[in-house]
């Protein structure tokens, strides 16, 4: 291979390129040596190595170590210093009078987290599917400036959860824009983050606001894949639009809907950042989610209880694994 | 105006307006307000002074009280419009406030002094951007530190992500080798394991590596990403094999083929992954929150969160810092929106 022409050019870019090209050449030397040693085909392993090393170190090993943490106790971080407690952490976590009443549980915060997360996920998934479906259908109509409107609904997806939460916190605070609107209409100011129901409502609302664009995009792709001649035929037969929607759109869009539902479930169960910044889990524990419980148990409480946090994350992992299997099954049906 | 409305009302296909069209445009208009409104309000508010932010009901635009220098006073004095006892109105500067009375002076003629009940005066206000909200945090807080930490994490992590994921994608798309299916399965497997369920053990690994509170603790765990591998692999599968065979004939080493031939050709896919990675890293929250405990190693997101949790939230600084945090993502969106949406449509991931 001859040297790239840009290395010879005396431009600013060329000056930057020269050391870079030299570096790549430098990597090429040991790579060539390895290639001579193991042959061309086996170079695949060399190329795979860094990635799999990262995956092992930060995903697979932790997955196993997580289980080790969950069956040991004490406050030490290093597993060798942690006494074995068997299923003690799980027994503690599941020590409940009734699973439907967090107050009857020994670790009531965990169960409050479970109850809140379940409630949050239920409302969020239903509303998310509904709104992203309506938005996708509207965006798929013969409208002007479709690109602009699609961007409008999509852009919050890119915002960081902290920015999203602070933006809404500023609007919803006591002297915020929304309360100004309410008093202008003759109402009383509402302290949204003091009332448990309102706090939960806004947690759901804000996370729909932030993520709806993503699901809309998936549904829009599904809508655009529906052959237009089906609708033309329906129009020929003077089929009302709602019937066309019911008999053509919904059945053909169903596989994408399933993907949206399962993805929203998986994300919903893991909800943390927006809600954490928006409400801090409050008032009290009204919007405390499972992931926040895990984070606080392991990292931010006075006593760091790694074992209990690990046991809770194993439970969360099992739930997620089940949901992911559902997703795979759903997407397989879609491909078939 | 009529042209604009003509353009708006024109139908692509000749036909009467259906009620669903009207409903659709109403919905879209409502959407514009609901989606853009909050961010617009954030940006407008970030230019208000501390006093301006405390106003209720809030003014739409950043307004602040006009001030004027009056001879005999070292400080500029705030201007008010005062309703005098005879019902006339005058613009006066306030020297000081004593209980419910204010001592005022005519700025044009400082010898004329008045005592006015405070409910008879209204501040004279003008449009003014409180740019100090943006400049002061740069000097007073660790804000520049957070900013440079975030930039470092984003840039370095994205470079590492591009390198190791493209290498893996190259191996999984160009070669046939024993264990290829196992490797693919491992990559797919990682898709199912988000950081939320392995927080504690990853923290242990980072502690073993001696990286707690270092920015590398944030960079390394997410560097290998299954999304990245798939995205690149799918693209590399479409590249012509003849090109690679020809290069081998010319005695190019495998590394040279990867770097000189496959990487330049995979540029579109690399660009999509780069954009994704920049967004992931810039916005990352839970893991940095767990692993960074010292203020000097905070990223912007963690810094913002810590700042908003303080007892007396200084909203005027917080809002400005939020806007700064939002800015790079906004720029990426404006210029590269098409890349992102096609990327999501192709992979079904974000």
Automatic annotation (TrEMBL), chain A:
Gene Ontology biological process = transmembrane transport
Q: Does the keyword Membrane apply?
A: yes
- Which species? Bosea lathyri
Q: How does it sit in the membrane?
A: Multi-pass membrane protein
Enumerate the InterPro entries for this protein.
ABC_transporter_permease, MetI-like, MetI-like_sf
Q: What Pfam families has UniProt attached to this entry?
A: BPD_transp_1 (PF00528)
Family assignment from sequence similarity: Belongs to the binding-protein-dependent transport system permease family.
The protein's matches in Gene3D superfamilies, at most eight in alphabetical order, are given as: MetI-like
Q: Which part of the chain is the ABC transmembrane type-1 domain? A: 114-327
Q: What cellular-component terms does GO give this entry?
A: plasma membrane
Subcellular location per UniProt equals: Cell membrane
Taxonomically, the superkingdom here is: Bacteria
**Name listed for the protein in its UniProt record:** Carbohydrate ABC transporter membrane protein 1, CUT1 family
Predominant location: membrane
Q: Which UniProt keywords apply?
A: Cell membrane, Membrane, Transmembrane, Transmembrane helix, Transport
From TrEMBL, chain B:
Signal peptide (UniProt feature, chain positions): none
CDD domains on file = TM_PBP2
Protein localization: Cell membrane
The UniProt entry's GO CC annotations, sorted and at most eight, read: plasma membrane
Q: Which UniProt keywords apply?
A: Cell membrane, Membrane, Transmembrane, Transmembrane helix, Transport
Ranges for the ABC transmembrane type-1 domain? 147-336
Membrane topology, as annotated, equals: Multi-pass membrane protein
**Which Gene Ontology terms describe the biological processes this protein takes part in?**
transmembrane transport
Where is the chain membrane-spanning?
Answer: 21-44, 151-172, 184-209, 215-236, 257-280, 315-336
Q: Does the keyword Metal-binding apply?
A: no
Q: Which Pfam families match?
A: BPD_transp_1 (PF00528)
Q: Which InterPro entries match?
A: MetI-like, MetI-like_sf
| Family the entry assigns | Belongs to the binding-protein-dependent transport system permease family.
- In Swiss-Prot or TrEMBL terms, this protein is called Carbohydrate ABC transporter membrane protein 2, CUT1 family
- Organism of derivation: Bosea lathyri
